[in-house]
Structure formats: structure tokens, C-alpha cells
Amino acid sequence: MKSGKMILALPLVFMVALANANDDIVLVAEPAQTYVCQDGKSVTAQYFNNTEKTISLVKLTMATEARFLPSIVSGSGSRYTDERDIEWWLKGDEASLNYDLHSDDASKTTLCSIKP
């Protein structure tokens, strides 16, 4: 691991889109980045991609909870969500974190910036 990146191997059983069920998927982890959010919370995001950049995940660590979210197609930026209750939408050095996707309560969304 010369570049300080971590390698994560996932069995194909988690990735239905690939053809051969006996292969492993190798994901490369980028260095973690810490974000400070307007609601005062801190979020650490670590991004994982396969070498072809066709699979992308983010691991969000917030206080005592860690969540892995897959990337979802977006019109702008990079969007990661479990489609149930959490969304991380990255645009440049800023991101929005939505704690409750099915609520109209704007207080469930906070803007975050990379910690200086």
C-alpha cells in the first residue's frame, strides 16, 4: 500500500450487476475526509471505488454510528444514499447530509464543509 490507500475486497454476492459470481470485487479506499456541518456535527467520509470506477461507496462515520452508502445517479455532484433514511450529496468541497429522506422537515438536512 504505497499510496496510503486501503484495499477492500467484497464478494460478488453483494454486487448483482457483475456476471461471474465467483469473482471478488476490489475496492480502493481514498483517504478519509472530515466535514464540519452547520448543525455542529462532525462527519468523516471515506470513499471507495473499484479500479474501473463503476462501483462507488462512501462510509460515513457520525459520532458512534458508521454507515456504508452506495452511489446513486445524480444530475450534479456525487449522491450516496440507502434510499431509506440517509443521503450524502457531495458537490465540490461541500456536502449535504439528509437524516430523513421521507420527511419534509428541512431541519433534517444540514450542509457540511471539509474541515480546514
Automatic annotation (TrEMBL):
Keywords: Lipoprotein, Membrane, Palmitate, Signal
Signal peptide: 1-21
Domain of life: Bacteria
Pfam family membership, one: MliC
The keyword Coiled coil appears for this protein: no
InterPro entries: MliC (IPR018660), MliC_sf (IPR036328)
Name recorded for this polypeptide: C-type lysozyme inhibitor domain-containing protein
Lineage of producing organism: Bacteria, Pseudomonadati, Pseudomonadota, Gammaproteobacteria, Thiotrichales
